[in-house]
Design a protein that fits this description.
The complex is a heterodimer of chains A (489) and B (123). With 489 residues, chain A is an all-alpha fold. Chain A is built from 19 helices and two strands. Chain A has a two-stranded antiparallel sheet. The radius of gyration of chain A is 26 Å and the shape is globular. Chain B is an alpha+beta fold and 123 residues long. In chain B, 25% of the residues lie in helices and 33% in strands. A four-stranded antiparallel sheet of chain B has the order 2-5-1-6. Chain B has a two-stranded antiparallel ribbon with strand order 3-4. The longest helix of chain B is centred in the N-terminal third of the chain and has 14 residues. Classes of the chains: A mainly alpha (489), B alpha+beta (123). Chains A and B meet through helix 10 of A and strand 3 and strand 4 of B.
Chain lengths: 489, 123
């Protein structure tokens, strides 16, 4: 009692000592410094939320995989995120945001505090790198990592591990830097018309990832047993809808960093508007997918409802900073309908276990194009990119610019990705052997099961715990537990 | 000595076991099995594709008894296992050559006998 009162008094004194000088400072604080610090804080908070989306992708893919391939997803997510971290630091960021011309950036290699980012980069980071620049660097990196995570959705349960590190270097070092430089750092796409509108990356992040996924899938082929002798698709049910659902909800949460964070600051409270836009769209996507699943499949498919949320979030990513609230539920609902129809149609042709081509590819294209329809004049002016959409001014120009942006991104990413995956296939092979696929990637690639109790019979896990018949000792001797017995109990 | 193998619905196991205990037959082994017969399969719809599951789960009951007790056991399984619908299962009776008790090493019909207090413990 006495001690806690003393502690409380000490804490109060400490608190007062901390508060008084800072209160005094606040009166003289430079408003520009305060604003800059607030912006840096928000960008880091948003970046951390986007980093957490890695957990969302992990759970989504684990839920949609069979129980023999779940540990492999964990190893993949950790490895890819880590390789991309280093590559982005070494040269990915420099090519993407290090100033330079229309093609790629030319400064900021091996990103260092105090180094100089050349003119031509975004005004926010041109010049000497400080804390704010570091926040921008981190925020752009977690976007790159999200885009890379999307690529592997089509490749579950059969791809060789060696494909991950090789493609991750190409992706974080070349592919993603090119596209993000072109769209967001005064590059190629920013110079078409008044600029392609892609606020947080329906094309730059999601279509880019899905296009890489498409290239990989074409070279990889379907999982064993996906198509029957008549060529009709068969279901290969994932092992856990609850884990999948957790993944969807984590991604939804992460998106509150993804879109609102792309304001790169707190000016005019724009980020709060974008939170509302993002959430309404996602909700409409769930309801759109729910209704479509009920009408088309005569059931309320859990996976489809989750895909509806993801597709709507992907679609609202490009327009989130350009549209008024009323447009969000329309964009989201259309994405929700689109994803169900696309998953069913694509399933007849190629094996995409999580629906990445539909939820990130088709919805990414729809989201990018929707700017050409719904962008409001107020927000086109505010962002200084492009002009208002068709529904405001009857002008198809912005829609045309958006189509050009999609075409450029798709073509570039597909070509580089296809060449990379074809090279991996030629040198190492892209796909595990049939026996390994049958046994599962957990045991064949990683030497351990994600759920050992489901694959190793309990009798084998128990080991030598049973009491042996004491043949050597006389029956009357006092029993002294052997070390083995002691360990067993 | 005979072995009786019954494949029954999960919900019929508890009544069967209770009555066998009361009759003095506590020794049995069960396992979760899957099999097909006249019972129809279940179709799972998953993201637009279908997969039909013809193998349905059942409980397999195995017990070895003296030959004169076989009819009692079979009757008990039939009585509680029957719902009248397709999918109630099957019962098979097989000859058994020898039986040993692991704890003591003794053999013969003796090892099939329940402990004297087994019936009391069940009630």
């Amino acid at each position: 009692m006495r001690r806690s009162r003393l502690t409380a008094a000490a804490l109060l004194t400490l608190l007062a000592a901390l508060l008084v000088p800072s209160a005094a400072l606040a009166q003289d604080a430079d408003p520009n410094v305060v604003a800059s610090d607030l912006n840096t804080t928000w960008v880091i908070v948003a970046g951390v939320l986007v980093m957490f989306m890695q957990a969302g992708f992990a759970f989504l893919e684990i839920g949609f995989s069979r129980g023999k391939n779940v540990g492999a997803v964990v190893a993949k997510i950790l490895t890819n995120f880590s390789i991309a971290s280093i590559v982005w630091w070494a040269f990915g960021f420099a090519l993407a945001f290090g100033g330079g011309g229309w093609l790629f950036g030319d400064s900021g290699f091996f990103f260092q505090y105090g180094s100089t980012i050349s003119d031509g980069a975004l005004p926010a980071i041109a010049g000497k790198v400080s804390g704010g620049g570091a926040a921008f660097f981190f925020f752009q990196f977690v976007f790159c990592a999200v885009s890379l995570a999307i690529v592997w959705g089509t490749t579950l349960e059969r791809i060789k591990f060696i494909a991950y590190p090789i493609y991750a270097v190409v992706f974080a070092g070349i592919i993603y830097p090119l596209i993000s430089h072109w769209a967001w750092s005064s590059g190629l796409m920013a110079n078409i018309g008044g600029g392609v509108q892609d606020f947080a990356g329906s094309t730059v992040v999601h279509l880019t990832g899905a296009t890489g996924a498409f290239a990989a899938l074409l070279l990889l082929g379907a999982r064993k047993g996906k198509y029957g002798p008549d060529g009709r698709p068969r279901a290969i049910p994932g092992h856990s809808m609850p884990i999948f659902g957790l993944g969807v909800l984590i991604l939804w949460l992460g998106w509150f960093g993804f879109n609102p964070g792309s304001t790169l600051g707190v000016a005019d409270g724009r980020f709060a508007e974008i939170v509302v836009v993002t959430n309404i769209a996602a909700a409409a996507g769930v309801l759109g997918a729910l209704a479509t699943s009920h009408v088309v499949q005569k059931t309320l498919d859990v996976g489809m409802i989750g895909n509806g949320a993801i597709a709507a979030l992907v679609a609202i990513t490009a327009p989130s900073g350009y549209v008024e609230f009323w447009a969000a539920p329309i964009i989201g609902a259309i994405a929700g309908v689109l994803v169900v129809l696309c998953v069913i149609a694509i399933d007849k042709l190629v094996d995409d276990p999580v629906g990445a081509l539909s939820a990130h590819g088709a919805a990414g294209i729809w989201g990018t194009l929707s700017c050409g329809l719904f962008t409001s004049p107020r927000l086109a002016d505010y962002n200084g990119v492009g002009q208002a959409g068709l529904f405001y001014n009857g002008d198809f120009k912005q829609l045309g610019v958006q189509i050009a942006g999609v075409a450029i991104a798709f073509t570039t990413v597909f070509l580089i990705s296809y060449i990379t995956f074809a090279s991996i296939k030629a040198v190492f092979g892209l796909r595990v052997s049939e026996e390994d696929e049958e046994a599962g990637l957990d045991i064949t690639e990683h030497g351990m099961y994600g759920y050992p109790e489901q694959f190793i019979p309990p009798a084998e896990l128990a080991g030598y715990g049973a009491r042996p018949i004491a043949a050597a000792a006389p029956p009357s001797a006092p029993s002294i537990p052997t070390s083995q017995e002691a360990a067993a109990t | 000595m005979k072995m009786i193998i019954g494949y029954v619905r999960h919900e019929s196991f508890e009544p069967i076991r209770t009555e066998l205990l009361a009759l003095g037959f506590p020794s049995l082994t069960i396992s979760e099995v899957k099999g097909s017969g006249r019972q129809k399969g279940i179709t799972e719809r998953y993201r637009g594709a279908e997969v039909t599951n013809y193998l349905r789960p059942k409980v397999k009951i195995e017990c070895v008894v003296a030959s004169e007790d076989v009819q009692t056991i079979v009757d008990t399984i039939l009585k509680h296992g029957r719902t009248g619908a397709v999918g109630d299962g099957k019962v098979f009776v097989l000859p058994v050559e020898e039986a040993y008790r692991v704890r003591t090493g003794e053999s013969g019909e003796e090892v099939l006998q329940a402990h004297t207090d087994a019936a009391a413990a069940a009630s």
